[in-house]
Design goal:
Blueprint (H helix, E strand, L loop, with lengths): L1 E3 L2 E5 L10 H9 L14 E3 L9 H4 L8 E2 L2 E2 L6 H8 L5 H6 L8 E3 L19 E2 L2 E2 L3 E9 L3 E8 L4 E8 L3 H19 L9 E7 L2 E7 L5 H7 L7 H20 L2 E2 L8 E3 L7 E3 L6 E2 L16 H4 L7 H16 L9 H12 L4 H6 L3 H4 L21 H4 L5 H10 L10 H4 L3 H4 L20
Parallel strand pairs: 1-6
Antiparallel strand pairs: 2-3, 2-7, 4-5, 8-9, 9-10, 10-11, 11-13, 12-13, 14-17, 15-16
Length: 451
């Protein structure tokens, strides 16, 4: 166990994301999965650097922590709260002196005087995290990894297992606690159906100071950050194929478990390690059962399937649509459909993929709002929609024909015609086969049935 000084990191939460202007604000608003939701994407986090000195608890208290190794594992001895109170009560706040008695095992406390003074969250319910402070007297907060509409994620060091972890701390409140419990339920369901190395590992969950917390394995950077770091130059098609295969394996497992992810986007696909192409799918907070859909308004706008915008029934094929959008963006460095709102998003989709099938127009609960009597998108704010004016084949002129065909199958407007994860794994581009006859590409499995 270690005692370490801390520093407070804060975040600037602007009331209006669009006020920041430019593409950043547009993308930030597109990442919301709720109407008019204001989230913390693109907000600035700052923290004071940690002091260079470190007080090692296991060096000052005999027998508290040992570095013995048995079969490659570090043996960690913990203190009781009574012993900490007896020998180090000066390092605890008055609140901590009472709180610590609720824990049987103490692995870490902070020796900084800069701590919470009873108020653990801001006015919006976000946990106020201090660099170097403790979570559950076991985890040491290192730095902030990110934030969103549901809470924050912090990089921590687990002093019990001696491993780095990522902890999602949900905002305070019953609704957010239910969201956390829901995500845990989804991840447990996926795990029961067998191990899958393309889906993030959940390690533990608990409540701390009124906040629901989920402990995950620590991964590397996400796909969007990768693009940003590389000046949005796009990704090598061979590397992209490896990522696509892994995403499909993960989606096949998720969908076979009767679930829909509902929020696939570059930010939710993380590399396992730096300079490696292995990835994992994260963030199942919006996931739902195929037989029990909780929400009608889901997915981040750039990756939102048309049936969601049209307010139709949906299934796991919405994840395949998002996959196609992600792969296009990772190849070109730019999102395929960039709409400032839902109507413009539909316009961008029609420009590339053509008019919606009449059946989809009839089934849309927003038909009178979005379409005229002929089933064409209505003209709003003098926006003229030119159906099919920007085909994938013209946008990706010099691209591999197999890749274009694969994207086309992922981006079929009619979800019944859209490829599923299992079929997609048999596509020639995914398998690395040369395309010979484009007419035969749609039939990858003799047992497949298309509508």
């Amino acid at each position: 166990m270690n005692i370490k000084p801390n520093a407070f990191f804060t975040k600037s939460r602007g009331d209006n994301l669009s006020a920041s202007g430019g593409k950043k604000a547009l993308r930030a608003s597109s990442l919301s999965t709720e109407k008019n939701l204001k989230i913390g994407i693109n907000n600035v986090f700052t923290y004071f650097p940690l002091e260079t000195t470190r007080t090692s608890y296991h060096r000052s208290i005999k027998g508290f922590f040992t570095d013995e190794c048995i079969k490659g594992e570090v043996i960690v001895e913990c203190l009781t709260p009574e012993k900490v109170l007896k020998e180090n009560s000066s390092l605890l706040t008055e609140y901590e002196k009472k709180e610590i008695l609720n824990y049987l095992e103490i692995y870490y406390i902070s020796n900084s005087t800069k701590k919470h003074n009873g108020k653990f969250c801001d006015e919006k319910g976000y946990y106020r995290a201090f660099v170097g402070d403790q979570i559950s007297y076991r985890y040491e907060i290192s730095h902030l990894l990110g934030d969103g509409s549901f809470g924050i994620v912090v990089n921590c060091f687990d002093h019990k297992t001696q491993n780095p972890v990522a902890i999602k701390i949900l905002r305070k409140g019953k609704n957010f606690e239910e969201i956390g419990e829901h995500e845990v339920k989804v991840l447990d369901s996926i795990e029961r159906d067998g191990f899958n190395d393309t889906i993030i590992d959940k390690i533990d969950q608990f409540r701390f100071r009124g906040h629901f917390c989920i402990v995950f394995e620590l991964l590397s950077t996400d796909l969007f950050s990768y693009l940003k770091k590389n000046q949005f130059q796009g990704m090598n098609v061979n590397v992209l194929r490896r990522i696509a295969v892994q995403m499909l394996i993960g989606l096949k497992h998720i969908h076979k478990s009767g679930l829909i992810h509902c929020d696939l986007k570059p930010e939710n696909i993380l590399f396992k390690a730096i300079n490696k192409s292995s990835i994992k799918i994260i963030d199942f907070g919006s996931a739902c059962e195929q037989s029990n859909k909780l929400f009608t308004y889901i997915q981040s706008r750039y990756y939102r399937a048309p049936e969601i915008i049209l307010d139709m029934d949906y299934n796991e094929k919405i994840d395949i649509w998002s996959l196609g959008c992600i792969l296009f963006e990772m190849y070109t460095g730019t999102p395929l459909f960039v709409g400032r709102d839902e109507y413009e998003q539909l316009c961008k989709i029609v420009e590339v993929m053509g008019e919606f099938p009449s059946k989809m127009v009839r089934m849309s609960n927003r038909r009178s709002e979005l379409f005229d009597n002929e089933g064409k998108l209505v003209c709003i704010d003098e926006n003229m929609v030119e159906s099919g004016s920007k085909r994938l084949s013209s946008i990706l002129k010099s691209c591999d024909r197999g890749f274009i065909d694969f994207l086309s199958e992922c981006l079929k407007l009619d979800p019944k015609q859209r490829i599923d994860a299992e079929e997609a794994l048999l596509h020639p581009w995914i398998k690395g086969d040369k395309m010979k006859n484009s007419r035969s590409l749609r039939i990858y499995n003799k047992s497949s049935t298309f509508y």
